[in-house]
């Protein structure tokens, strides 16, 4: 059961790496779903209007803590938000577990308990650390103007970033830069931390935790963040030349515009 007979609905915003994680998991499971892109910035309100609860306890941190504005945004609610079989599920963490409960195969988590612990720890890092790092690194570039981005953020592995229209993209990125403390003044620090983050992903690939024959929830959590960072023209080739870049190309190949909806 769902809002339209048999079909799930995924509420998202354009270009969201977090929403692409949910898209990849739904595709992996072969779920029939429609994607509804909400207007970026108003999406916490819009998703509440669709009956989603928001997060009473903060779910996101910047520099190891949840400042007041971020806590307020978390209370409002985040996308991806999934309406499926009459249930409303918010956050990739809960969506992954819900999807595995609904149908065990193809699994998102390894059956072996030790392997599962490792994958869940990698997923948590992708969710709590890397997703925010990617968001802030991308937003910081917007302070230099849209020319800092592949195709000015109009097309790419995640589709148009934030909004299909450039003027709206610039306005939305300005608000988000304040919310997520992504400013030219701390950009150097964020960029300085990136090589270690990418090395960590490459090491997980070498160990077979990521990029295995059977893809898992951690792959789906981490790869969209790589995609978002690689919109930055100054970082693109540095990512694509790594093992992480090969995994990115495997899961989210560059496609002609509009091929994957307007994530
Ligand atoms: N880590 C969570 C959070 C996702 C998240 O931060 N979503 C962003 C869009 S990329 C959002 O809805 N932000 C609302 C806001 O900041 O007001 C997940 O993966 O589900």
Indicate the CATH class of the largest domain.
Answer: Mainly Alpha
Structural class by SSE content: alpha+beta
The average pLDDT value, as a whole number, equals 93
Give me the side-by-side strand order of the main sheet.
2-1-3-4
Low-pLDDT regions: none
Query: Beta fraction of the residues?
Result: 5-15%
CATH domain fold name of the largest domain? Glutathione S-transferase Yfyf (Class Pi), Chain A, domain 2
- Report the bound ligands by name, code or SMILES: glutathione
Largest sheet: 4 strands, mixed
Computed CA radius of gyration, to the nearest angstrom: 17 Å
Q: What's the number of extended β-strand segments?
A: 4
Structure in words:
Strands 2-1-3-4 form a four-stranded mixed beta sheet, covered by helices on one side. The protein has helices at residues 17-29, 43-49, 68-76, 92-102, 113-142, 166-179, 184-207, 217-229, 233-240, 243-251, and strands at 8-12, 33-37, 81-84, 87-90. It has ten helices and four strands. The model has no long low-confidence stretch (mean pLDDT 93). The protein starts with 7 loop residues before the first strand and ends in a 12-residue tail after the last helix. The protein is globular and about 45 Å long. It has two domains: 8-102, Glutaredoxin, CATH 3.40.30.10; 113-251, Glutathione S-transferase Yfyf (Class Pi), Chain A, domain 2 (Up-down Bundle), CATH 1.20.1050. By secondary structure, the chain is α+β, with helices and mostly antiparallel strands. It binds glutathione.
């Amino acid at each position: 059961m769902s809002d339209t007979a048999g079909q799930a609905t995924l509420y998202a915003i354009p270009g969201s790496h977090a929403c692409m994680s949910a898209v990849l998991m739904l595709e992996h499971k072969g779920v029939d779903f429609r994607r509804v892109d909400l207007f970026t910035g108003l999406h916490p309100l819009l998703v509440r209007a669709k009956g989603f609860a928001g997060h009473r306890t903060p779910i996101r941190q910047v520099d190891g803590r949840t400042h007041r504005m971020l806590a307020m945004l978390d209370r409002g609610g985040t996308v991806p938000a999934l309406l499926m079989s009459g249930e409303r599920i918010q956050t990739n963490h809960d969506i992954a577990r819900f999807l595995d409960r609904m149908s065990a195969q193809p699994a998102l988590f390894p059956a072996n308990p030790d392997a599962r612990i490792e994958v869940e720890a990698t997923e948590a890092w992708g969710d709590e650390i890397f997703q925010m790092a990617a968001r802030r690194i991308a937003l910081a570039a917007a302070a230099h103007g849209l020319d800092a981005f592949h195709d000015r953020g109009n097309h790419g592995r995640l589709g148009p970033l934030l909004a299909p229209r450039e003027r709206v993209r610039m306005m939305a990125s300005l608000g988000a830069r304040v919310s997520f403390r992504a400013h030219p003044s701390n950009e150097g620090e964020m960029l300085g931390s990136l090589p270690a983050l990418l090395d960590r992903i490459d090491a997980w690939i070498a160990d077979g935790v990521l990029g295995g024959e059977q893809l898992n929830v951690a792959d789906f959590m981490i790869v969209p963040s790589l995609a978002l960072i690689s919109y930055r023209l100054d970082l693109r080739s540095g990512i694509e030349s790594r093992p992480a870049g090969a995994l990115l190309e495997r899961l989210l190949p560059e496609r002609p515009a509009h091929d994957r909806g307007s994530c």
